[in-house]
Amino acid sequence: MDWALFLELAINGALAGLMYSLVALGIVLIYKSSSVPNLAQGALAMLGAYVVLAVFEGLKLPILVALPVAMAAMFGIGMGIERVALRRLAGRPLVMILMMTLALEIFLRAAALTTWGGTNRVLPLPISSDPLFIGPILINRSYVAGGALALLLFGFFVLFFRTRMGIVLRAISDDYTASWSVGISVERGVAVSWAMSAVVATLAGALWGSIQGVDQSLSSLLLMGIAVAVLGGLDSIGGAVLAGILLGIIQGVASGYLDRLVGGGSRELVVAATLVLTILIRPHGLFGREDIQRI
Amino acid sequence: MFYRQAGIHHTTYRGDRALFAIPFERWQIGVLLAFALVVPAVVSSLYMKSYVLPWLIWSAAALGLNLILGWAGQFHFGYAAIMGIGAYTAVHATLNRIPFEIAIVLGGVMATLIGCAFAITALRVRGLYLALSTLALQFVMDWVINKVPAVSGGTQATIQAPSMRLLGNEITSDAGLYYVALVWCILVTVFMLNLRRTGLGRALVAVREKDFAAAVIGVNSFYYKLVAFAMSSFIGGVSGAILVFCFYHAVTPEQFAVNVSIQVLAMVIVGGLGSIIGCYFGVAFILLLPGIVANLIFAAAQALDLKIGIELLAHIPALLYGVLIIGFLLFEPLGLAKIYSNLRNYFIFWPFGYAKK
C-alpha cells in the first residue's frame, strides 16, 4: 500500500468534501427552517456562478467586488423564489414540494442555457493554480481555499444562530404554531433562510466554477450536496461540515482505487451508494434529530 | 344532456360498481377506441410515428408510475432505471434468439426483481427518505448500465434492437408498431381501471392514506408496498422494452437517465395523482406541448420577421417544460384530471347548471 498516495487522496478528498458541504449547508438551512428538501440547490449554485460572471464581465468589476455584489443579488433571488414558488405550497403533500424544487431546477438550468449559452466559461478567482506540496503530498490550492471557506461559513453560522435573527430561525424550525403565537413572522424567517441559502450557493458555485468552469453541469453538485446533507443529518449544520469531510475522504479514496479497476467515473457510484446506505442504516444521519419517521 | 343520467338506477351492487356508471361514457370510450383503430389510415405517418406512438407508450409507463405514486403513495424517483432494465433485458434476450414475446416478459420480470430491491428501502423509510434513496438507486443503476460492458455493450455504446417478430410475423410497418403499442397501452389501462375495483386496489389506497392505520385493520402494509413496487416495475419494464422496440429502435443509457425519471414524474403530477385519464393528458402535455409551442413560436417569429437566436429557440422547449410544471403546481395542483372532471361535472348538469348543489 502506497501511503503517500493514500494520504494525498484522503486530504484532497476531505478538502473537496468540505466544498461539497457548502452545497449541503444550503440544503440544511432551508430544511431546518421549512422542512422543504431543496432539490434545486445545485441549480442555485450554478445560477450563483453565472451571476458572479455576469457582474464580473457585464459591469467590469474586479472579481472580489463582483462576488459580494452577486451574493447580494442572489439574496434577493432566493427570497423571490420562496415568495413566488414555495410559499403557496406550504402544507401541500411532500411530492408536490419535491416536484416543485425539481421543476425549479429544470427551469433554472434552461434559463441559464437560454441566457448565457451552453459553453463552459472561465471564472477567474484569484487562487493560484500552482500545486501546493506538503512533503510528497500534492494538494490543490483551490480545494484549500474552498475548505477554509466552508469552515469559515460554519463558524459564521454557529455565531449567527446565537443572534436574534438566528434564534428566530431556530424557533421556526422547532414549531411553526408556537412561533406564530409569540409574534414571529414565520414567512419572513423562511424567506430569509432561502435567501441565505442562495448566498451560500453563490459561494459554492463560484468556487466550483473556478475549478471546473461555469456551465450547466454545476447543477449536478446536487447529488453530492444531498448525500452530505443526509449523512450529516438534514437539520444539522455541524453535521453537514463533518459529513462533508467524511464523504469527501470516502469518495476520494474509494474512487482513487476503484477508478483503476472500472476505468473511471466511480465517484458518483460511491456517493450514491453512501446515500442509500445512510438511509438504510441511519436515516436521520450522524447528527440529525431522531424524530424523523421510520417504519 | 350528453351525460344523461335520467332513468339510470343502480339496483344492484354490481351495477353500482360498473366500470362506466353512465352509458354515455361507454359510447365515448367506444368511439375513442374505434378512432384509435383507424389512426394509421387517418393520421399522416410522420405524425403517428413521432407523436401518437410515443404518447401511447409513455402513457402506459406513466400509468405504472401512477400505480405506485398515486395509488400506493410510495415515492419512486428511479422509474426510468426500471424502464431501462426492462429495455436492456428484452434487447439482449432477442439478440440471443429468444422469441420477442418471451423476451418482453423477461424484461418485465427482470424489472420486477430489481424493482423489488428498490422496495427494500420502502421497508425502512418513507416520505422524503424513500424519495432520496430511490433517486440514489437511479444513479446506481445508471452507473451499472453505463459501466458494465455486458449490459451496455461498452461505454457510450448504442445497441441496435432487432426487428420485432410477433407470433412468427416480422413487424416493420409503422401501422404494425402502432398497433403493438396500442394493445399494450389498452392492456395497462384496463388493468388499472379494474385495479380500482378490487380488494388489492383498495388495500393499496389504505396503505397510501396511512400505513399503520392500514395495518390496524388487517392490511399487511409491507406486503402491499412490495406488491405495488412489483406491479409498477413490471409495467415499467415492459413499457421500456416496447418503447425501444417500437420507437427508438436502439437502446442507449441516456434514454433512461435520471432526467427521464423526473420527466415521468412530471407527467404523472401534471396529469393528476391517482387518475388514469390524467396520465394520458399529462403525457401529452409534458411530451408534446413544449415542442409544439416552440414550433408555434418559431412560426410566429418567421411570420413577424423577428430575429430569435438559434440557441434561444433550441432551449425554449426545456424552459417551457419547467414553467409548465411550476405553473401546474401553483395553480392546479390536482392536475389536468381535475380540470377534466370539472368539465365533466359541468356537462353532467348542463344546461341545468343552477340545479347543482
Polypeptide structure, described:
With 295 residues, chain A is mainly alpha-helical. Helices cover 73% and strands 2% of the residues of chain A. The radius of gyration of chain A is 19 Å and the shape is globular. By secondary structure, chain B is mainly alpha-helical. Chain B has one domain: ABC transporter involved in vitamin B12 uptake, BtuC (Orthogonal Bundle). Chain B contains 15 helices and 4 strands. Chain B has a two-stranded antiparallel sheet with strand order 1-4. Chains A and B meet through helix 4, helix 9 and helix 11 of A and helix 5, helix 6, helix 12 and helix 14 of B.
The CATH architecture classification of chain B is Orthogonal Bundle
Mean pLDDT of chain A: 87
Spatial gap, N to C terminus of chain B: 18 Å
Q: In percent terms, what proportion of residues of chain A is strand?
A: under 5%
Task: Please tell me how large the radius of gyration of chain B is.
Answer: 22 Å
Q: What is the H/E order of chain B?
A: HHHHHHHEEEHHHHEHHHH
Distance between the termini of chain A: 43 Å
Whole-number mean pLDDT of chain B = 86
Number of helices of chain A: 11
Which fold name corresponds to the CATH topology of chain A? Answer: ABC transporter involved in vitamin B12 uptake, BtuC
Note poorly predicted spans of chain B: none
Helix content of chain A: over 70%
How is the main sheet of chain A built? 2 strands, antiparallel
Total beta-strand segments of chain A: 2
Please report the total strand number of chain B as a whole number.
4
Shape field of chain A: globular
Order of helices and strands of chain A: HHHHEEHHHHHHH
Shape of chain B: globular
CATH topology-level name of chain B: ABC transporter involved in vitamin B12 uptake, BtuC
Strand content of chain B: under 5%
What's the alpha carbon Rg of chain A, rounded to whole Å? 19 Å
